[in-house]
Specification:
The protein has three helices and two strands. It is mainly alpha-helical. Strands 1-2 form a two-stranded antiparallel ribbon. The chain starts with a helix and ends with a helix. The relative contact order is 0.08.
């Protein structure tokens, strides 16, 4: 494991403890729950950025529904471009 990976794990443990000051757990609990939670938060931010990029390129369409949440769907007008991206 490289130093950067160890540093990232350390920061994730510290971030969890900062958000949950009373937290105490075993090694297994830390791996399964604490680090998973931090990873999910990080991944969620990345997914939002990707969705924003895809919507900006008009490959997907974003629309707000009555529940005020944003929903996404493929843009049928970009089918050829989408297929080209998927084929690589």
């Amino acid at each position: 494991m490289c130093v950067a990976q160890r540093d990232e794990i350390a920061l994730n443990v510290l971030a969890y403890l900062h958000e949950h000051a009373a937290a105490r757990d075993t090694f297994e609990g830390i791996v399964e729950w604490w680090l998973l939670e931090q990873r999910l938060k990080h991944d969620a931010a990345e997914v939002r950025a990707v969705l924003d990029d895809l919507a900006a390129k008009k490959l997907i369409l974003a629309y707000k529904t009555a529940d005020s949440r944003i929903h996404y769907r493929v843009n049928p007008r970009k089918e050829k471009e989408l297929l080209a991206l998927l084929k690589g």
